[in-house]
């Protein structure tokens, strides 16, 4: 993996790194994983993920983003209440994102050069972040909760999308039962009402995400879909984080 990989903890109130990043974390600290580029950093990407551990495919993507000169910061969104997935949303989500944002800006990264990337329910969170935070771009992959909220702490995406404040890219599988095509089309229409650039891409035959084991597109197209999706993610950040 290219770049420097490390785990640290941030104070939620000021975004300061803890002196000892291996000690148990108090409530006031947000554990994060950082991958920094070997050389000049042209911006930062906050990666939201719904798992307690990083999948190999996600770590590979984070390393590729770092190799493309982005500082990659991934907060542990579940550090408060164990397996309670509702901690992804609401005030806790924004507090954790803000800690990462402050950490990046404290290292000289301008707000319009900071992006957010999320997968599955964390993709839903990434869109919600882009409705209320001064970032440069956002990408959601297979984000559910399109027409109905996932929790009372999150708005439905069709209601949130018109409020987007940052350019947003959504990537979906056309045959994903968690995000029916009719719902994705409603989201496309809702996002088009935002005052920023938006793009929703669906992949025929894809049942979820191209990098998700056991939920793959039609045989023979897996690699093409994965390459196209990652190319679009990199291109979106390249185009809008300036």
Automatic annotation (TrEMBL):
Against Gene3D superfamilies, the record matches this protein to:
alpha/beta hydrolase
Q: Which organism is it from?
A: Nocardia terpenica
What this protein is called in its record is: Carboxymethylenebutenolidase
InterPro entries, per database record? AB_hydrolase_fold (IPR029058), Dienelactn_hydro (IPR002925), Dienelactone_hydrolase-like (IPR051049)
The UniProt GO MF terms for this protein read: hydrolase activity
**What domain of life does the UniProt record list for this protein's source?**
Bacteria
What sequence ranges are listed for the domain Dienelactone hydrolase? 35-208
SUPFAM superfamilies, A to Z: alpha/beta-Hydrolases
- What's the short name of a Pfam family annotated to this entry? DLH
């Amino acid at each position: 993996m290219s770049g420097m990989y490390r785990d640290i903890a941030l104070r939620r109130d000021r975004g300061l790194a803890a002196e000892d990043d291996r000690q148990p974390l108090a409530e006031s600290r947000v554990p994060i994983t950082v991958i920094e580029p070997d050389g000049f950093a042209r911006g930062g990407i906050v990666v939201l993920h719904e798992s307690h551990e990083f999948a190999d495919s996600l770590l590979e993507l984070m390393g590729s983003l770092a190799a493309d000169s982005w500082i990659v910061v991934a907060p542990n969104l579940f550090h408060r209440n164990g397996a309670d997935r509702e901690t992804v949303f609401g005030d806790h989500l924004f507090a954790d994102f803000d800690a990462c944002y402050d950490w990046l800006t404290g290292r000289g990264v301008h707000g319009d050069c900071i992006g957010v990337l999320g997968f599955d329910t964390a993709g839903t969170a990434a869109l919600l972040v882009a409705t209320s935070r001064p970032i440069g771009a956002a990408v959601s992959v297979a984000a559910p909760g399109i027409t109905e909220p996932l929790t009372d702490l999150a708005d439905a995406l069709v209601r949130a999308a018109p409020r987007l404040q940052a350019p947003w890219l959504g990537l979906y599988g056309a045959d994903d039962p968690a995000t029916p095509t009719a719902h994705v089309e409603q989201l496309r229409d809702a996002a088009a009402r935002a005052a920023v650039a938006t793009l929703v891409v669906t992949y025929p035959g894809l049942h979820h995400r191209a990098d998700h084991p056991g939920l793959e597109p039609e045989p023979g197209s897996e690699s093409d879909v994965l390459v196209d999706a990652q190319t679009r993610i990199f291109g979106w950040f390249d185009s809008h984080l300036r």
